[in-house]
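In the design runs reported in the main text, the only information available to the sequence generator was the tokenized backbone. The following block is the verbatim input for one such run; it is reproduced so that readers can re-run the procedure and compare outputs position by position.
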């Protein structure tokens, strides 16, 4: 295993480590947080994995690889290139078969607010994954009333509400 190869030099001199048990722990934690080698052992996936229904009757099926939105006969598929559970967003490549913005890139943000899960498709037609990632996150301080998308006075001075996702 890659991790044992990385730790082997540090573990070869255990006589010093026995006197300082925290030294080995600190070395292991540093290696895990400093290298992607520990991702082999960390199989945690996207935090919002599951099936949901949003306020508009659209079903969202979310896995580590794909975020699918199905409304009646319209289906949009976003192939996830990356996600960040701490910063609560995912970057996806829009499927070539999507009716809107095919082969573009999307940023999908989510937030838990007052025990409810909300999402905002902050970017939907970015030219690249980097452009989607650089799109500023919507204001999630009160997602049920606004903050998703650019303000559009006078109808929505705070942008549109984030979409509430209810687990199915």
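Verbatim output:
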């Amino acid at each position: 295993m890659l991790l044992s190869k990385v730790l082997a030099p540090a573990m070869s001199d255990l006589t010093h480590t026995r006197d300082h048990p925290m030294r080995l722990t600190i070395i292991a934690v540093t290696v895990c947080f400093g290298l992607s080698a520990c991702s082999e052992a960390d199989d945690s996936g996207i935090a919002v994995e599951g099936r949901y229904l949003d306020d508009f009757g659209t079903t969202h099926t979310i896995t580590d690889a794909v975020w699918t939105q199905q409304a009646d006969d319209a289906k949009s598929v976003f192939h996830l290139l990356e996600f960040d559970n701490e910063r609560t967003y995912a970057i996806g490549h829009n499927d070539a078969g999507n009716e809107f913005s095919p082969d573009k890139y999307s940023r999908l943000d989510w937030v838990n607010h007052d025990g409810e899960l909300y999402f905002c498709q902050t970017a939907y037609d970015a030219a690249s994954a980097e452009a989607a990632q650089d799109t500023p996150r919507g204001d999630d301080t009160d997602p049920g009333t606004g903050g998703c998308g650019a303000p559009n006075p006078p109808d929505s001075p705070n942008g549109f509400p984030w979409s509430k996702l209810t687990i199915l």
